[in-house]
Amino acid sequence: MKRISLALVALSTTLLISGNAISRSKDNEFARVEVLVRPTLDSLVAKEDTDGDKRITIDDPHIPGTDRGNKRFWITSLDGKKYEVAETYYLSNLLQALKLDEDEGKDTAWIEGREIFEPPVEHIAQSIKDLYWDGLTRRIDESGLEKIFKDTKTHTIDGYNYVYVPHGDEMAFDYFDSIAVKHPDFKMKVVRLPEKVTPKYVESLNDRAGILSLKLIKSPDGKIEGAPFVVPGGRFNEMYGWDSYFITLGLLQDGRFSLAKSMVDNFIYEIDNYGKILNANRTYYLTRSQPPFFTSMALAVYEHLPRDSATTVWLKEVLEAAIRQYKSYWMGPEHLTWTGLSRYYDDGIGPPPEVEPGRYDYLYAEYAKKYGMDPKDFEHEYISGKLNVPALNKFFTDDRSMRESGHDASYRLQYDCAELVTVDLNSLLYKSETNIARIISEGFGGKVKLDNGKLERASTWEQKAEKRKELMTKYLWNEKRGMFFDYDFVDRKQTDYVSATTFYPLWAGVATKKQAEALVKNALPLLEMPGGIVGSTEESRGPITKDHPQTQWDYPFGWAPHQMLVWRGLKDYGFGKIAQELAYRWLYTITINAYNYNGTIAEKYDMVSRSSQVFAEYGNVGTKFSFITRQGFGWTNASYVVGLTYLSKKLIADLDRLIPPEWVFDR
Question: Would you call the peptide bond into 351 cis, given omega within 30 degrees of 0 as the criterion?
């Protein structure tokens, strides 16, 4: 594996690095220096990590009257020569290199100059490829459970770690039961789910929440291991629904084809055994899914598979699962509305258990006042079912449904999600319909008999897509404003919330050329910010107050999935130059933050200030680590390696020089 980038250069016995001026040794190669690992690491931290967070960033202050924090550090080699490294980025690279060497148990190590001074774009991309994907890979098996059980979200009333297995998966139950016996230190209990999982049953598991099994692979010699998958990172140690699509695009770009296919295989298992792709594979997610990207994910993997009989069998499994989830879940009675379009909906009971403590304190306080009760007493009485508060029940239905959308939280959905047919969901279902038609057409000659004996034709799914397109134009398109908006099917009117999701129809291919042109003219100026596409407009979000706090999917924040969907949609409709500029804006935001903050690859960014120093709601996953990030953040990693494919060599060179987009583009 290529080592994460580091830096050091020798000129005679000393070297000074300043700005972009890098001196080289006479053979035009960077020097390599052998050092004592631990003493050098300790000395570097003592001198340059002046705020004590075990990182070297631009926030480390210079200590007056000393040389601490002056962003210049001298390395002493084993032969007594001295080499200087200067500036935050290069010092943080050195810190990362030394930490990797220490973790490998080395007393001495060679510091490679060519790696310390590797340009930031190559540094980030190579780190993602060689370090971060492996750092984010998990398995639900004997080898992977210990790491999953250490998850800070795992708290049960009896202190045990629970693994839940689908009702019909005997191999999984026997396998995990044997692990529980073999590893009493795991404090593990294995539970078989009932054949029919109800919302009431899921609620009963709140005090014994646990991980849900995924696909197990049994080799000819009898060895069993879990199909690997990639998690988002940080506090997320489970396989998430829509994150996995974007992560897969990054894996494919980096040549990790087998791992990408394994992600799809795990989703087939979820559909077959849990009835849908889950929000994530934990018990409290059994009542909801996430945005349906499954067919697009599978087709992306399919493009990299050999055209042989095994691939055809796999594609049939994908098709069977996709159609089953589409018909039973997204077009089922709880999601399909009278409009003919679908909504997000979670039929779980009460507050979602996965939220952090205190998330709803303001709400309980408000209702407790109405009932003349202490807020804690009110919360206990309500959660235990002793109080029935219809308005609060509705709030939690909308809140849970919003979480199925993946946009948790946004004021677009916070208070009425279950009453909305949304632009994003119906764009994704249109894409699912056209993808299913494509699979049947290209993979099976236009028609295929499913295992249940039903004949499916590509033309049937093309007709479904065309009908949805008509309904989306009828209910979601606003001709006057030239944008797509969600539709409230209870009040029978469009909302006016301007969100990045207005661009989903471009990615899905459901928009007409005229609609695409209108979106570029009307929506883009409202949502394009210095750092890329923002989640919503400031006007739609509204002013921030104590009773209207900042939400992470709204202005001023931007997220990787929105960027990637917008780039692809614009490019497909002939706006490639705009897509390229937006990709550059986003990649510049990631690059400058990684450059200044010890390699940070964050969950979300402030699109106005281009900053990763964001602490709305749940903070910012990916920004908290010691010495070195080994994971980045799943879909942000993917957006970086995918985003680079939109840039020319010149633009990548500009990005390496950290030239802000406003100096590169003139539009």
Answer: no
Catalytic residues: 408, 603
Q: What percent of the chain clears pLDDT 90, i.e. is strictly above it?
A: 90
- DSSP per-residue string spanning 30-76: --EEEEEHHHHHHHHHHHH-TTSSSS--TTS---TTSSTTSSEEEEE
Cα separation, 170 vs 190, in Å, equals 12
Residues in a beta bridge with 558: 605
Q: What is the largest CA-CA distance in the chain?
A: 82
The vertex-145 CA angle with 561 and 222, nearest 5°, equals: 110
517 pLDDT higher than 90: yes
> Residue 186: left (phi > 0), alpha (psi -120 to 50), or beta?
alpha
Sequence-distant (≥ 6) Cβ neighbours of residue 500 within 8 angstroms: 527, 533, 534, 535, 536, 558, 562, 566
pLDDT tens digits, 138-151: 999 999 999 899 88
Coil, helix or strand for 292?
coil
Burial category of 422 from C-beta neighbours within 10 Å (exposed 0-12, middle 13-18, buried 19 and up): buried
Q: State how far Cα 77 lies from the chain centre.
A: 41
What are the domain boundaries of the chain? Answer: 1-118, 136-286
DSSP annotation string for 300-316: HHHTTS-SSHHHHHHHH
| Amino acid type, 482 | G
Is 319:439 a contact under the CB 8 Å cutoff?
yes
In contact, 632 and 233? CB cutoff 8 Å: yes
For residue 509, which of 571, 436, 585 has the smallest C-alpha distance? 571
For residue 485, what are its two tokens?
């908006």
Distance CA 32, CA 34 (A): 7
The set of residues, in sequence order, having a beta carbon less than 8 Å from that of 210 and lying 6+ positions away, is 154, 156, 161, 162, 163, 164, 189, 191, 282, 283
Give the per-residue SS3 of 507-519. HHCCCCHHHHHHH
CB 212 within 8 A of CB 275: no
- Give the pTM: 0.95
* Residue 213 confidence (pLDDT) above 50: yes
pLDDT tens-digit series, residues 591-600: 999 999 999 9
Identity (one letter) of the amino acid at 51?
D
Structure tokens at 351: 């507050």
pLDDT, one tens digit per residue, over 154-193 is 789 999 999 999 999 999 999 999 999 999 999 999 999 9
